[in-house]
Design goal:
Elements (H helix, E strand, L loop, with lengths): L1 H11 L5 H15 L1 H33 L4 H29 L1
C-alpha cells in the first residue's frame, strides 16, 4: 500500500520540459555573459551556410567537368569557393573558441 502511494506521488510530479531547460540555460547565459548568447545564436546559421558551401563546391566542380571548361576557369572558380569556405571556417572556429 505504501509503495502505491509513493508511485502516485512520483507520477503527479511533472518533470521539467525541454523548453523549461532551454529557457533556464539561456536565462543564466544572459545573466553571466550576454555576448555568449549572440555567439551561440550566430553559430547555428553559420554552420548551415558552411555545409551548403561545401555542397555548392561539389556542384560547381561537377558542372565544370561536365561542360569541359578550361583549366583557368576551373582553377579560378574553385579558388574563390575554397577561399569563401576557408573564411567561414575561420569565423566558425573563432566562435567556437569564444564559446568554450
Amino acid at each position: 500500500m505504501v509503495e502505491q502511494e509513493k508511485m502516485k506521488k512520483k507520477k503527479e510530479k511533472l518533470p521539467y520540459t525541454t523548453w523549461q531547460n532551454v529557457a533556464f540555460t539561456v536565462k543564466n547565459m544572459w545573466k553571466w555573459d550576454k555576448f555568449l548568447v549572440f555567439l551561440c545564436i550566430a553559430q547555428a546559421p553559420l554552420n548551415v551556410v558552411l555545409n551548403l558551401a561545401w555542397l555548392l563546391i561539389i556542384r560547381c566542380v561537377i558542372s565544370l567537368i561536365e561542360n569541359n571548361s578550361d583549366f583557368g576557369m576551373f582553377f579560378i572558380r574553385l579558388s574563390v569557393f575554397i577561399i569563401i569556405v576557408l573564411l567561414l571556417n575561420i569565423i566558425s572556429n573563432i566562435f567556437s573558441a569564444k564559446i568554450r
